[in-house]
Amino acid sequence: MKIFVMRHGDAHLAASSDMQRPLSPIGESEAAHATAWLREFYFAEHPNIDYAMVSPYLRTKQTLTKITEQFTVTRTEYTRDIIPSASAAIAHDYMDTVLSLHPEINSVLLVAHMPFVSYFVESLTQLTPPLFATASIAVIEYDKSLSKGYILEHKQVYFT
Length: 160
Hints:
The protein is of the alpha/beta class and 160 residues long. It has one domain: Rossmann fold, CATH 3.40.50.1240. The chain is 33% helix and 26% strand. The chain is built from 4 helices and 6 strands. A 6-stranded mixed sheet has the order 3-2-4-1-5-6, with helices on both faces. Strand 2, helix 2 (58-68) and strand 3 form a beta-alpha-beta unit. Helix 3 (88-101) packs across helix 4. The protein is globular.
């Protein structure tokens, strides 16, 4: 199965709280381009993501909205388990629990923040954590039985 770990698009710096920072116009463009790349290279024939874990922050929700313009997402969960300060190990355990309860899930999209996305990839792969530009995506081939995967690709292009 594949896990797609995505950082949200570029966001405005000013807002009433960090949780309320919206995507900037550049971030909207980045998210749209990243979505098109994801569809072209991984979902050309069947644009469906089985399960999405999304941070409840505005910018991650808006990034997911861009994705759902081109994809069907069967199940979406907004969770504080993947906010910037969350524990990657706890989120990894939680995802494994969801996968064990729903064996039909073959694709997972996680939309979150730095530094969480780096630590989450490290937790999944046991490799040095990669850095993520905004709207970049790490593609992980994941073995549910081992609770471990490896990086197939880390698409890190600045979409503007």
